[in-house]
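User: Just a sanity check before I run the rest of the batch. Below are the structure tokens for the first item. I only need the designed sequence back.
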């Protein structure tokens, strides 16, 4: 049910904007080619990313990354806001929730600083939509509430109506039809007041589908007809045949097949003038259903075949299976039993269900039972002659068979239990081995750090003190001797500092005393800002994490930063560290030269393997997002 509702709400929106997208993309490409300033190029690039994201994710990503690089180059905050927003949309369409939340949050930083309230609201709406797709409705509602509050404060009725429609979608998917319908009605009231006919038509379409989900077909027909009237006036032709199709489907449910056929015919006439395949699969399948019930079987067969062809091309398994089932029933009525069986087998392979096949099997079984009954009557006298001993033998055989099955079942369960125990033991040993290796590594680091600090460090300090003490006792014959002596003391002093630095790097005091965020801050503060600028954003780390988690995350981030400095040629490095109810997320993003993640010779280096091993030790995941020339993003989630 939720899947059907989602498809219904998304479908008519795509139908309404499909013809306009092509023209807009062509215009934006012309503007990009003619752009003479960087800001104009950024505007065109992000505009193209917004328009093509539904049809070509890779192009949208390339446009977004070009805009991001150019915006960073000229330090253009609005361009950064738009570029991160576009990258969030790409991640949304690719169902990468962690990435999209990261990109949208980056966009929010700039829209908040620029006081771009409309972009803030749109970003919250998209973040809410991402959680709707994962059926996390409370989280989604939280973002929608933020957008609604901002839209109300701005007194932007159009934006407020958009939020209401998103909330309607949320409640429809959670099967709370009353609330869903209420938010659609609130959006309709706004569109009527704004005289926004095009969007009002879309809202009436949404309301029609809402009533269809509740099986209130009179209301479905009424509101879809109102949508058709509006779209005829606004010349939104592509929506009209879809609405006619859904009206016909509602009439089918009411068994008004003659009226349903009229609506299907109207939809087909309009589709014949358009080069637009969407929803034609449903049209022809529903058309076939109506004609089958009117006993117009050859025509029904033709429409079923058309609908199945469209559904196969579109990859819509729901409509394809419905069409195959309907075609099977029509062919049975026509007496074409062999062909009916062939299409039923196709239906069975698509749907992977056995209900209809079981019905056909039941008919066959009843025939066999009838034949068996006739034979039974003929041999009834022979059966009466079966002795009591035979019955006892049959009973004994049955008991033995049952006991055999019980013994086999017990043995099978016992074997499966032992296999699970063995597998669990193997996994436990692997975890213990990994933990032992990492703990040994950290113990060795601590030992070496302590030896350097307490042993070599103390000896170097003592050497410096002794040299300083005998300085007054030495009689320097000329300034050159004094200068050489001072250089020796300076070298000893530098050695002391170097020993302390190495000791601290192996086991930083800030990590031991103040926690992960402060340790990372202390680490990046030591990086020369003339070489690379590093920014750190952390949230939710007021309380200390478990010691192993802090150490492993510190080592991973340290490894990532060192990789950026050594290999990327980047000038900007952004580190994000966030702890929330879902866990801990860390993101390290640079604007360097990037690398090809499919090239295993570069991607499989020891540094990246160490990162993956450490994160896996914490039962986490790590994702490397990089392409040559467009920087690198490392996303870690524990």
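Assistant: Here's the designed sequence for the first item:
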């Amino acid at each position: 049910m939720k899947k059907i509702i989602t498809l219904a709400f998304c479908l008519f929106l795509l139908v309404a904007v499909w013809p306009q997208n092509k023209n807009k993309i062509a215009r934006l490409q012309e503007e990009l080619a003619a752009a003479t300033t960087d800001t104009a190029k950024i505007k065109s690039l992000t505009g193209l990313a917004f328009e093509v994201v539904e049809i070509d994710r890779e192009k949208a990503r390339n446009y977004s990354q070009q805009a991001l690089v150019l915006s960073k180059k000229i330090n253009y905050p609005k361009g950064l806001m738009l570029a991160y927003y576009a990258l969030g949309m790409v991640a949304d369409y690719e169902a990468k929730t962690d990435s999209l939340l990261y990109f949208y949050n980056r966009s929010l930083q700039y829209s908040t600083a620029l006081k771009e309230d409309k972009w803030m609201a749109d970003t919250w709406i998209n973040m809410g939509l991402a959680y709707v797709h994962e059926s996390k409705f409370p989280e989604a509602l939280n973002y929608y509430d933020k957008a609604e509050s901002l839209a109300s404060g701005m007194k932007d009725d159009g934006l407020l109506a958009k939020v209401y429609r998103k909330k309607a979608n949320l409640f429809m998917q959670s099967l709370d039809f009353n609330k869903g319908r209420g938010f659609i009605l609130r959006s309709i009231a706004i569109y009527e007041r704004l005289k926004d006919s095009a969007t009002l038509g879309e809202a009436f379409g949404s309301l029609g589908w809402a009533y269809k989900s509740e099986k209130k077909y009179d209301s479905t027909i009424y509101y879809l007809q109102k949508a058709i009237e509006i779209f005829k006036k606004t010349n939104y032709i592509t929506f009209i045949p879809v609405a006619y199709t859904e009206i016909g489907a509602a009439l089918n449910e009411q068994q008004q097949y003659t009226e349903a056929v009229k609506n299907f015919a109207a939809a087909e006439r309009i589709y014949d003038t358009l080069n637009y395949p969407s929803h034609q699969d449903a049209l022809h399948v529903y058309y076939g259903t109506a004609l089958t019930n009117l006993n117009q079987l050859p025509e029904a067969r033709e429409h079923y075949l058309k609908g199945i062809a469209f559904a196969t091309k579109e990859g819509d398994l729901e409509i394809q299976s419905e069409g195959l089932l309907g075609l099977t029933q029509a062919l049975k009525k026509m007496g074409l039993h062999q062909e009916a069986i062939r299409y039923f087998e196709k239906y069975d392979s698509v749907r992977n269900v056995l209900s209809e096949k079981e019905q056909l099997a039941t008919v066959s079984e009843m025939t066999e039972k009838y034949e068996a009954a006739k034979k039974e009557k003929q041999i009834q006298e022979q059966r009466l002659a079966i002795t009591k001993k035979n019955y006892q033998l049959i009973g004994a055989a049955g008991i033995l068979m049952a006991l055999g099955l019980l013994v086999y079942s017990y043995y099978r369960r016992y074997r499966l239990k032992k296999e699970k125990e063995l597998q669990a033991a193997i996994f436990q040993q692997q975890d213990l081995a990994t933990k032992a290796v990492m703990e040994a590594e950290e113990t060795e680091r601590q030992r070496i750090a302590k030896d350097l600090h307490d042993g070599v460090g103390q000896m170097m300090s003592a050497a410096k003190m002794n040299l300083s003490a005998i300085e007054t006792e030495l009689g320097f014959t000329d300034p050159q001797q004094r200068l050489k002596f001072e250089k020796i003391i300076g070298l000893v002093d530098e050695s002391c500092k170097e020993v302390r630095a190495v000791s601290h790097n192996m086991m930083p005091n800030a990590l031991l005393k103040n926690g992960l965020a402060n340790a990372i801050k202390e680490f990046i503060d030591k990086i020369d800002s003339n070489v690379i600028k590093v920014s750190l954003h952390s949230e939710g780390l007021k309380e200390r994490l478990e010691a192993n988690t802090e150490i492993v995350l510190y080592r991973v981030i340290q490894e990532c930063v060192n990789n950026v400095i050594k290999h990327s040629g980047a000038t900007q490095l952004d580190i994000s560290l966030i702890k929330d109810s879902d866990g801990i997320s860390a993101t390290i993003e640079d604007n360097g030269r990037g690398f090809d993640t499919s090239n295993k010779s570069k991607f499989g280096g020891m540094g990246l393997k160490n990162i993956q091993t450490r994160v896996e030790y914490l039962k986490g995941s790590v994702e490397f997002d990089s392409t040559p020339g467009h920087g690198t993003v490392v996303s870690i989630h524990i």
